[in-house]
Amino acid sequence: MKVLVTGAGGFLGQAVVRACTAAGHEVVAMIRPMGRDPFAAPVTVVRGDLRQVGPWRTQLDGVEAVIHCAAATGGTWRRSSQGPSPQRKTCLR
Ligand SMILES: NC(=O)c1ccc[n+]([C@@H]2O[C@H](COP(=O)([O-])OP(=O)(O)OC[C@H]3O[C@@H](n4cnc5c(N)ncnc54)[C@H](OP(=O)(O)O)[C@@H]3O)[C@@H](O)[C@H]2O)c1
Q1: Residue 2 Cα to ligand 1 middle (Å)
Q2: How far is the CA of 9 from the centre of ligand 1 (A)?
Q3: Whose CA is nearest to atom 18 of ligand 1?
Q4: How far apart are CA 32 and CA 44, in angstroms?
Q5: In the chain, how long is the greatest CA-to-CA distance?
Q6: How many structural domains compose the chain?
Q7: Which PANTHER family does the record match to this protein (predicted)?
Q8: Domain containing residue 88: CATH number
Q9: Mean per-residue pLDDT for 8-15?
Q10: Is residue 59 within 8 Å of 46, Cβ to Cβ?
Q11: Domain range holding 16?
Q12: Residue 58 alpha carbon to ligand 1 centre in Å
């Protein structure tokens, strides 16, 4: 299965990416534009911010499941949660 993991560069996201690849899934790892990319092939990295529906959206063709690990855990939850609408719309498409 082709799986999108949001927050893939985070603590939980990295573990989820590892578990998914170990289980044989094709993983698309979403990392913010300036975030560190800790992954190697076969993980596909897409860069984007969930608060904005941007070019990253076009890289999600064929994704069958979304594991949503992105969160603002450093006290900036308000900034991260201001844009749930485009994020939810994208997941629903
Ligand atoms: N850690 C645990 O043990 C644990 C246990 C149970 C549940 N959880 C929950 O799991 C979630 C993630 O926790 P975590 O410990 O993995 O946190 P984390 O290490 O801070 O990872 C969160 C990730 O989300 C990304 N992110 C934040 N805002 C984003 C946005 N607008 N668009 C795209 N990506 C965004 C961050 O990117 P940047 O690196 O660029 O900021 C980061 O990579 C939280 O909701 C937490 O409550 C965690």
Answers
A1: 21
A2: 8
A3: 10
A4: 14
A5: 35
A6: 1
A7: NAD(P)-BINDING DOMAIN-CONTAINING PROTEIN-RELATED, PROTEIN YEEZ
A8: 3.40.50.720
A9: 95
A10: yes
A11: 2-92
A12: 23
